[in-house]
Amino acid sequence: MVSRQVLQAAIDAELRVDTFKDYTLNGLQVEGRQSVGRIVTGVTACQALLDEAVAWNADTVLVHHGYFWKNEPAIVTGMKRRRFATLLQNDLNLLAYHLPLDAHVSLGNNACLGRRLGFRAERCLDGELGQGLLWMGVPEAELDSQALAERIEQRLGRAPTLIEGHAGVIRSVAWCTGGAQDMLPLAAEAGADAFISGEISERTTHMARELGITYLAAGHHATERDGIEALGQWLAERFDIEQRFIDIDNPA
To answer: Minimal CA–CA distance to 43: which of 111, 116, 98?
Structure first.
């Protein structure tokens, strides 16, 4: 067991939370039990994940997507009320880490996605490695756009939406997990042959074709599963506590 305060302090320090300006609150969002021995990790603090945490008798839920987003209505009704009721009635802590988890140099979503897809990270285009969100590197083997799409489907279990803006071999790749499709021009300006993120907008197709860069929308959820699981494993090893990653299916 470890105290909630010690657990949070360790995460905050490792992810350098105080160096990020975010759209939400990072850290403890709902206070539960003082002592932590069982942590459920998941991408989003949806009702299904909370119910799984209760069923496993966890005392803490650790997620990438929590609550209290910028411009979110403040009232606690309906779906939000049910979620909060589950947390409070079962004395569950809710901890959430957004951009700090995306960026971390080894535990972060971008680091994990790069490893899973076989990319060697070289730099960030919007900051230092471990602080920036738009990563750039090279694939472990030569691929064209179709082969890269096939690799993503094989390793993420989800077929990406492919916009073939670059013809020929993909020698450099940029990536940012989640909803970062509007970083596409920055990736193209840096010389990337392909850019991978989670989502696609109508405008993304035209930008990719006109900028000559292949775009692959690999799924917001699919690109952000690994970071929170890695963070949970890091905590389990550091504090000798139990952790369980639960993947609530999401095709988005």
So the answer is: 98
Distances (CA, A) of 107 to 158, 224, 228: 22, 11, 8
Give the length of the chain: 252
What's the rounded mean pLDDT across residues 216-221? 98
Q: Is the pTM of this model over 0.90?
A: yes
Helices (H), the chain: 4-15, 47-55, 78-89, 99-103, 109-117, 145-156, 184-189, 202-211, 220-223, 225-239
pLDDT (0 to 100) of residue 66: 98
CB atoms < 10 A from the CB of 182, how many? 14
Output the DSSP codes for 217-243.
E--HHHHTHHHHHHHHHHHHHHHT-EE
State the virtual CA torsion across 230, 201, 17, 156 in degrees, nearest 10.
Answer: 0
How is residue 232 written in tokens? 């949970």
Using CA of residue 126, residue 203, residue 46, residue 79, what is the dihedral sign? Answer: positive
Long-range own/partner contacts, residues 195-198 (CB < 8 A, 24 or more apart): 196/113, 196/117, 196/152, 196/160, 196/223, 197/223, 198/222, 198/223, 198/224
Q: Which amino acid is at 185?
A: P
Token pair, residue 251, equals: 């095709």
Pair 151, 117: CB distance under 8 Å: yes
Backbone angles phi, psi at 62, to 5 degrees: -120, 120
* Domains of the chain from N-terminus onward: 2-97 (3.40.1390.30), 103-223 (3.40.1390.30)
